[in-house]
Specification:
By secondary structure, the chain is of the alpha+beta class. 10% of the residues lie in helices and 22% in strands. The chain has a domain of 190 residues. The longest helix has 17 residues. It is globular.
C-alpha cells in the first residue's frame, strides 16, 4: 500500500469514527425549562403535554425524595440564575445592580462580563462549585445513602464530578484549620427542615466561578442552600451567599430546575448523558 493510500484509509477511518459519535454539547450552553416540550432535547424533556404535575415523591418514612422513585428513572436538567428574574429564576432574586459587591468584586465581575466565557475555568473542564454546578447542561441527580448518612450529587456535565452532603451532624471546617484543604465543592453538611433540605458549605478554593457569568468569590465563601421539590417535575433551589471579602452583606437568590424524563438526546431511558470533558480541553478558544 502506498503512503498516499495509507493516509486516505486512515483519514476515512477517523471520519467514520467521528460520524458515529453523538452531536457535541457545548459545556457553557445551559438550556432552560423551555426544553420541556416533546420536540426539544435537553432538561425537562419527555413530560409531554403540559398539565398538572404528579405529586412530590416521598420515601417510606415520609421525607421528600429528591431523586427518581424506585423503579423509575429521570434526572434534573440545568437551572437558571440567582440574579435577575428571567426564565426559571425566582421572582424574588436581586438584579445585578442590587448585589452588594465589594468595589474590587464589582470591577472584576464587569471585566469578566466583557471577556466572556474565554476566562471561565469551567470552559477548561474544571469543576464548577456553588450554584454553578446546577447551571451546567447534561443534568444531575441526588442519590440518598442512609447507611452512610449522606447524599451524593452526581453531575453529568463537566469533568464527571460528584459532591457529598453529610447528614451525620458533623461540624464544618473552620477557615483557620491548618488541615483544611480548600476544594471546588467545599465541605457540606445538611439537615431536613420539614420538606426542605438545608445545606451549609464552606472551605472553597478560588479556582472556579461560583456562578455563570463570573460572580466573584473568595476563600471566605459560605453558602446556605435550600433544596425543595414542590411537585414531581420541579426542584426549587435557593441559596444565601455570605462572603465578606467579596460582598458587603449576605444576599440570596435562586431558580427552579425541571425534571427530565428521557435521555438527554430525547431517546427513551431517563438516564444522564455521558459527557466527556477533561482538563486541558482545547475548544475554549472558540468561545466568546
Amino acid at each position: 500500500m502506498t503512503k498516499t493510500r495509507a493516509w486516505v484509509t486512515a483519514l476515512g477511518a477517523i471520519a467514520l469514527f467521528w460520524s458515529l459519535l453523538p452531536a457535541p454539547t457545548i459545556a457553557q450552553d445551559t438550556p432552560g425549562p423551555a426544553g420541556r416540550g416533546v420536540g426539544t432535547p435537553g432538561p425537562g424533556r419527555g413530560r409531554g403535554a403540559r398539565g398538572p404535575s404528579k405529586p412530590t415523591p416521598r420515601w417510606p418514612d415520609g421525607h421528600v425524595n429528591l431523586g427518581a422513585p424506585a423503579g423509575q428513572s429521570g434526572f434534573w436538567g440545568g437551572g437558571g440564575s440567582i440574579v435577575g428574574k428571567r426564565g426559571s429564576s425566582l421572582p424574588t432574586n436581586p438584579e445585578v445592580a442590587d448585589v452588594p459587591f465589594q468595589p474590587w468584586a464589582k470591577a472584576l465581575y464587569e471585566t469578566r462580563l466583557k471577556v466572556g466565557d474565554k476566562d471561565d475555568p469551567h470552559a477548561r473542564c474544571l469543576p464548577p462549585g456553588g450554584p454553578r454546578q446546577f447551571q451546567t447542561p447534561n443534568g444531575f441527580e441526588f442519590i440518598e445513602q442512609p447507611d452512610r448518612k449522606r447524599i451524593t450529587i452526581i453531575f453529568g456535565g463537566g469533568p464527571r464530578s460528584w459532591r457529598f452532603i453529610y447528614l451525620d451532624g458533623r461540624p464544618l471546617p473552620t477557615l483557620d484549620d491548618l488541615d483544611l484543604i480548600p476544594t471546588y465543592f467545599g465541605y457540606s453538611t445538611g439537615r431536613w427542615d420539614g420538606d426542605t433540605l438545608v445545606v451549609e458549605s464552606t472551605g472553597y478554593n478560588e479556582k472556579f466561578w461560583f456562578h455563570r457569568g463570573g460572580l466573584p468569590h473568595t476563600d471566605a465563601l459560605h453558602l446556605t442552600e435550600r433544596f425543595s421539590r414542590p411537585d414531581y417535575d420541579t426542584l426549587k433551589y435557593e441559596v444565601t451567599v455570605d462572603d465578606p471579602k467579596a460582598y458587603t452583606n449576605p444576599w440570596s437568590g435562586g431558580f427552579t430546575v425541571p425534571w427530565t424524563y428521557t435521555n438527554w438526546d430525547g431517546s427513551p431511558g431517563g438516564e444522564i448523558h455521558e459527557y466527556l470533558c477533561q482538563d486541558n480541553e482545547r475548544d475554549y478558544s472558540r468561545l466568546r
